[in-house]
Amino acid sequence: MRTIWMMLRASVVLMALILLYQLAVLGIAQAAMPDKANGSLIYNESHEVVGSRLIGQSFTDPSFFHGRVSSIEYDAGASGTPNYAPSNPDLLQRLADTAEAWKRENPNVPVNELPIDLITNSGSGLDPEISPDAARVQIPRVSEATGISAEELERMIRDHTRGRDLGFLGEPGVNVLQLNIEVQQRTAQ
Amino acid sequence: MTIYSWVAILVTLGLAVLIAKPAGLYLAKAFDYEKNGLDRWFGPVERVIFHASGIRQGNQTWKMYALSAVLSNLAMMLIVYLIFRLQGFLPLNPSGVSNMEPTLAFNTVVAFMTNTDLQHYSGESGLSYFSQMIGIVFMMFTSTATGVAAAMAFIRGLAGKPIGNFFVDLVRAITRVLLPMSFVSALIFAALGVPQTLASSAIAHTLQGTEQQIARGPIASFLSIKQFGNNGGGFVGVNSAHPFENPGGFSNMLQILLMMLIGTSLPFAYGKMVGNAKQGRVLFVSMLMMFIVMLGVLLSAESAGNPAFHALGIGHDQVSMEGKEVRFGMAQSALFATVTTATETGAVNTMHDTLTPIGGMVPLANMMLNTVFGGAGVGIMNVLMYAMIAVFLSGLMVGRTPEFLGKKLEGKEMKLIAVNLLVTPFLILAPTALALLAYPDTISNPGFHGLTQAIYEFTSSANNNGSGFEGLGDNTPFWNIATGVVMFLGRYFSIVVLLAVAGSLAAKKPVPVTSGTFRTDTALFGGVFLIIVILVGALTYFPAIVLGPVAEHLTLRP
Fold first, then answer.
1. Its quaternary structure (chain A) (predicted)?
2. Is the confidence metric ipTM above 0.85 for this complex?
3. How many Cα atoms occupy the beta-carbon half-sphere of A92 within 13 Å?
4. Which residue, B92, B227, B359, B369, is the most exposed by fewest CB within 10 angstroms?
5. Residue B421 placed within a domain
6. Which CA distances in Å does B485 have to B93, B141, B437, B438, B492?
7. B347 in any annotated domain
């Protein structure tokens, strides 16, 4: 009995110590890097949150660059994928549907030129990025819908491309939200 | 694969190998009961903890040690169970999460206390910040500490020293190892963009004029212990695939290094503690070789892509990106998947359910073998158990009494080990059969892959990994209770039995080493060890592997 009491006491003491650690990290992070600690949010001129640099958004309008397939439609109150096995017939059906939609919206770019990341569901359903190739194949559509020249869009994609961390870690990606913010600003002018 | 992918893999693994030995020597020192320089730094804090908890510091017998571990873990589970069940009434709940359902709360406390971190809930909607910080993170620290403590007691027993005191080891693991490293890496993660806030979800007004709710929370301090302690349960549902829980290539590498740190350093700590550094090195190299083979298989399977895609004329010659994130790409996803299952962490940065069939077989095989580094503490125990089997079988073959570290391995020890060896496959295969017969509707993918989903879930539970083929509809009373029981037995049965082996060996008189003694610190022994691991694994799981991933692979080929 005395041992059980000691174990419960020890649990509470360790709980307090571990909470203290988390609060210390909280204090330092909030003081030293409040922007990142609060979710890397992006604000517009009227100080409204338009999104997060790290979280993807759903884009369906032809005048925007589109992100990756997301079964949760970029609902960042949750996260997830349908977890289709490579052999799942539903996966192949979704793929065929995506290809059909692509043909409708991008009549000038053949389906077999599609980069794989544009037709597959990301792991999180919130992937903020697409590969530079996946951005480039969308240039004809966006250019037609917005009137921005292809060369200009090419430059914007380059500007929003993140290289590999330390030059070799991971893969390069284009931040779709930040790219589209610039597209929107240009269209509004 | 590009040159960058190869460089990234080589640099990451190179760093892991470089830090393993110094970290191992530090571990050996941190748990040494002789006075040393570390006492000056950590002694004052530890004395406060001992005093406040009423911990007495004398040596325990192996039975008392094992009992203390199991009972204290039960006490912690009870406290956290109550927190989960009452979280709706408790503070720090800005998103208004309601109380957790009983079978799910049972599953979750067992999952985190056993270092498994199987998750049948989604963090964004299932747990309040209070439950995450006081419940989950607390158990992440103490479960890792329990595993490391058990390993230290086991090694002391093998070395013929007193087993030690569970509570002293538990506290030392937290103060000397887990807290300092978690603190530093949490700050690095925060600097890389991982949120650390108590504010509720942000509401964004998107460019297309809709509202987007963005879940966030105190993730940085959660993430570091999740990886360092080989826990693996995510703050959010999709774990380290979520951009908040793994924002880029650098955070990804750091997470991989944290996952590998304890598992790779323990062989060196072991070598130091038993006074045979060479043997520790032999075990380390053997495990590294298995790791490299596993990684190679996974990389080649994933870079071949999905043939079913190619048949549609899409994505020809491209790698498989379903369930993966752009910032990691195929190679960093494959490396992460290999590490997370080898070290029994269970965090994921890619969805294992969506891996190609042979690709998905690698995580499964890593968990089934449970000797490719293995989880915090329990990994090295399992490895040493296989080393003893190797010694025993070699002894039988040459007709000599087998010896390990100068102690005779006899019937008693081998019986305990044999029972332990049989329990894990039973815990995996029997409930899988039950699930397939009674609850086939919870399995989301048709065909052979469905079988793999069920086997994966129980393999992950029994070996305390915690990753899942997440398509499984697993938040049902059946899956919650079945996996809860499997996790509990998979963890504590093996810890208690192996401590019994150590206790039994510690009580024996050492036999002098002669020229006829089978050396256990040579490359030959490393080879025998590897053969035994693969033989035992293959004999046990081969039918399941053939019916699951291999059959699926064959059906995909045109």
1. The system is composed of three essential subunits: KdpA, KdpB and KdpC.
2. yes
3. 14
4. B92
5. no
6. 30, 22, 19, 17, 11
7. no
* Amino acid letter for position B172: R
Chain B residues within an 8 Å CB radius of A129: 325-327
| Cβ atoms of residues B232 and B466 within 8 Å | yes
* pLDDT at site B558: 60
pLDDT in tens, B12-36: 999 999 999 999 999 999 999 999 9
Q: Which two three-digit tokens encode residue B163?
A: 């087993």
Point out the residue among A9, A49, A96 whose CB comes nearest to the CB of B205: A49
DSSP for B283-329, written as a single string? HHHHHHHHHHHHHHHHHHHHHT--HHHHHTTSSTT----TT--TTTH
- Cα B431 to Cα B436: distance, rounded to the nearest angstrom: 9
Cβ pair A120:B325 closer than 8 A: no
**Cα–Cα distances in angstroms (integers) from residue B211 to residues A65, B204, B374, in the given order:** 19, 6, 44
Q: Say how far apart CA A175 and CA A80 lie, in whole Å.
A: 20
Q: Count other Cβ atoms within 10 Å, centred on residue A147.
A: 10
Residues of A in contact with B448 (CB under 8 A): 87
Domain tally for chain B? 1
For residue A33, what is the nearest residue in chain B, using CA coordinates? B191
Specify whether the CB–CB gap between A69 and B224 falls below 8 A: no
Domain membership of residue B521 (yes or no) is no
Mean pLDDT to the nearest integer, A41-67? 95
**Least confident residue range of A108-112, B244-248, B310-314, B410-414:** B310-314
Q: Is a pLDDT exceeding 90 seen at residue B546?
A: yes
Of B45, B41, B16, B18, nearest in space to B30 by CA: B41
Q: Read off the pLDDT band of B316 (50, 70, 90).
A: low
Query: Beta strands of B369-454 (E only): which ranges?
Result: 403-404, 407-408
What digits encode the pLDDT tens for the residues B466-484?
988 877 878 899 999 999 9
Residue B30's nearest CA partner among B183, B184, B154, B148 is B148
List the structure tokens of B277: 């550094």
Residues of B in contact with A180 (CB under 8 A): 207
Q: Which residues pair with A174 in a beta bridge?
A: A130, A161
* Residue A44 confidence (pLDDT): 92
The reply to whether B189 falls in a domain is yes
- pTM: predicted TM-score of the whole model, two decimal places: 0.96
Contact B459, B367 (CB under 8 A): yes
A14/B171 touch (CB, cutoff 8 Å), yes or no? yes
Decide if A110 touches B, using CB distance below 8 A: no
